[in-house]
Design the sequence.
């Protein structure tokens, strides 16, 4: 896969990104959730905490489609709230929604 793109760094990067940075609702949900539940560990410095927050921000940006706007962010946040509000008996539905590319 990547080997055949050895002479084209741009193509190699796009292939690696497609394999390792899957832009699915579940991945976005997990990144938002990680950011919103971020907390400082007792032995963690503020600079390390800030670095973790910055990395999550970078991950969020990388997962966004190019057409992403505030309207889409609003919709994603509402979907996150709804999915997060589902009780345990809806875990199968939750997993299905998070794996669906069309949310």
Sequence:
């Amino acid at each position: 896969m990547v080997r055949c793109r050895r002479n084209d760094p741009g193509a190699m990067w796009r292939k690696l990104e497609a394999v390792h940075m899957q832009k699915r609702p579940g991945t976005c949900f997990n990144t938002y959730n990680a950011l919103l539940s971020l907390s400082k560990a007792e032995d963690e410095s503020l600079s390390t905490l800030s670095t973790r927050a910055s990395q999550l921000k970078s991950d969020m940006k990388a997962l966004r489609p190019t057409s992403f706007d505030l309207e889409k962010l609003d919709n994603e946040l509402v979907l996150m709230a709804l999915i997060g509000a589902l009780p345990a008996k809806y875990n199968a539905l939750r997993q299905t929604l998070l794996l669906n590319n069309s949310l």
